[in-house]
Amino acid sequence: MMSRIYTHAFFICAVLVAGFIIGMTNMPGEWYESLAKPSFNPPNWLFAPAWSLLYVLIGWVGARLFLRRQDRAVLFWLWIVLLVMNFSWSPVFFGLHFTFAAFLIILFMFIGIIAFIALAWHRERFSAILFMPYVLWVGFAMVLNGAIVYLN
């Protein structure tokens, strides 16, 4: 029981810390402020709490899959790929200012999250449910990213 608690705590903390570091090293800044943005662009302060909550859910799912990796290997590897895509988006968008490349990353991430939910639904339903807010937020972020590409 304690090892499960430690595993969940480790995964949640690792995902949160990595997300925090990537966020702090890829701040929006003046470049982002100068971009034309759609009317549905949320205020900047909303992103940190939204991603923090999502990173807790992502970490929880990662721990569940790690603990069951012998019979959930495909889901665990898909989780890793999704996390790499997630963590690459900010450096590509905010760091390199490659808005279209970032759009492609988030598009594939969105498709990957949908695939994850579909694959997990019968064998790992709780994880699939935990990814529902993730797919909704990434879907919104994808539309926002696409609108920024279009407007600029």
From TrEMBL:
Q: Where in the cell is it found?
A: Membrane
Where does the source fall among the domains of life? Bacteria
Q: Which lineage?
A: Bacteria, Pseudomonadati, Pseudomonadota, Alphaproteobacteria, Hyphomicrobiales
Please name the GO terms of the biological process aspect recorded for this protein, alphabetically: tetrapyrrole metabolic process
Q: Which UniProt keywords apply?
A: Membrane, Transmembrane, Transmembrane helix
Question: Which family does the entry's similarity section mention?
Answer: Belongs to the TspO/BZRP family.
What protein name applies here?
A: TspO/MBR related protein
Where is the major localization of this protein?
Answer: membrane
- What membrane topology term does the record carry? Multi-pass membrane protein
Q: What is any one of the record's Gene Ontology cellular component terms?
A: membrane
**PANTHER family, sorted:** PERIPHERAL-TYPE BENZODIAZEPINE RECEPTOR (PTHR10057), TRANSLOCATOR PROTEIN (PTHR10057:SF0)
Q: Where are the transmembrane segments?
A: 5-25, 45-67, 74-94, 100-121, 128-151
Check the record and name the CDD domains matching this protein: TSPO_MBR
Return the Pfam families for the record: TspO_MBR
Q: Which InterPro entries match?
A: TspO/MBR-related_sf, TspO_MBR
